Amino acid sequence: MSHISVRNLSVSYSGQLALDDISVDIPDGQITAIIGPSGCGKTTLLRCCNRLIDLTDGAGVSGSVLIDGVNILDPSVDAIRLRKKMGYLAQRPYPLPMSIYDNIAYGPRIHGVKDRQELGRIVERCFRAAGLWEEVRGRLRDSATKLSVGQQQRLCLARALAIEPEVLLGDEPTSALDPVSAQLVEKRFLELRGDYTIVLVTHILRQAKRLADYIVFLYMGELVEQGPTAEILANPRDDRTRAYLTGDVS
C-alpha cells in the first residue's frame, strides 16, 4: 500500500473549484513531482497531504487522502500527530527565532526527547543529512536568522528530518534560492530518496526531469496524466501534457 493514496479529492475556495475529483497513488520511496501551470492546484494538493489546508479560510474539501490506509481528512485524526509523519518545506525558509541548534532540537523535545546527549546526536545526524553540518558545527548557538537563505532552507530540511517523518513534502522548495543553493538542496533530495517518500511541487520542468521518478500533471484543477517520469516525458498521452512539455502552455 502506498503511504499516500488520494481518492476523489475535490477542493474549493469560497465556492470556486481548485481541485476536481483527483485520485492518485504516490509511489513509496521515490520522488514524485507535481507539475502544471500556475494556479492549477499543485500546492492545494500538497497541503491536503498534511492538513495544512485546514488553515485556509473558506476551503471546502471532499474525498479522502489516505496515509497508511487512514483517511487523514477525517476530523477525528490528530493533525499534530499526522504532521510528525509528514515533513514539510515551504517555498521560503522559515527558521524559528532561536539558535541553529534549537531549531533542530525543538521538534524532538516536543515529542519527548529530553536527554542532552541524545538531542546532540539527533542535531548532528540531521545536519549531516541536510549537508549543513560542516558549515554550522562551530556556530550552533548563533541565531538561525544569521544563516544565508540557502543555508536556512537546508536547516529547515534538517528540522523536518529531526521528527523522523515517513514522507517529505516540498512546495517549490528551491524557488527562493540562488542556483548553487538550489543545487545543494536537490542533491539532498536525491540522497534521501529511498529512505523517504518525497513529493515536490515544482514549476521548473527541468527540475522535475532531474529529480522525479514519477510525475503527476495537473491542469485547471484536473489530474490530466500521471506515470513514471521517463514515460510521461517521452510519450505523453494527453494533448495538454504535450503542450505543457513543449512550452505551448506556461
Question: What does this protein structure show overall?
Answer:
The protein is of the alpha/beta class and 250 residues long. It has a single domain (4-245), classed as Rossmann fold. It has helices at residues 42-48, 79-85, 100-110, 116-129, 133-136, 149-162, 179-192, 205-211, 229-234, 239-245, and strands spanning 4-13, 16-26, 31-35, 59-67, 70-71, 86-89, 167-171, 197-201, 214-219, 222-228. A 6-stranded mixed sheet has the order 6-7-8-3-9-10, with helices on both faces. α4 packs across α6.
Features:
4-stranded antiparallel beta sheet; 36% helix; alpha/beta; single chain; 26% strand; 6-stranded mixed beta sheet
Indicate the CATH class: Alpha Beta
Residues in helices, as a percent range: 25-40%
Shape: globular
User: Which regions are unreliable across 5 or more consecutive residues at pLDDT < 50?
Assistant: none
Instruction: Report the CATH topology name.
Output: Rossmann fold
SSE run: EEEHEEHEHHHHEHEHEEHH
The CATH level-2 architecture is identified as: 3-Layer(aba) Sandwich
Instruction: Return the structural class.
Output: alpha/beta
How much of the polypeptide forms β-strand, as a percent range? 25-35%
Instruction: Write down the overall mean pLDDT.
Output: 94
What is the domain tally? 1
Counting DSSP H or I runs of 4 or more residues, the number of helices is 10
Distance between the termini: 34 Å
